[in-house]
Amino acid sequence: MPTTRPRYQVTETPDMARALDLAARRWPNEPRSKLLIRLVQAGSNALEEGRTEEAQHRLAAIDATRGKYADVFTDDYLAELRRDWPE
Fold it and tell me: CA-to-CA distance for 20 and 4, rounded, in angstroms?
């Protein structure tokens, strides 16, 4: 089918065959070419979900330490720190 979009050629290596066999169990009666597309979509979704989880863990860590060290720094801490900076 004519297209202006890039095309990719993929060799069915043993790892690729294993992934396609797993995909065939998940999505039976699909041709291997469509299974490959489904695997790419599933992988993309998993990566995006992982990114979201990482962000949630970072935000949880920030929330857990928020205000924890407030008594360590005086009100003029930044001004005092910057006093020695070159102008």
Answer: 27
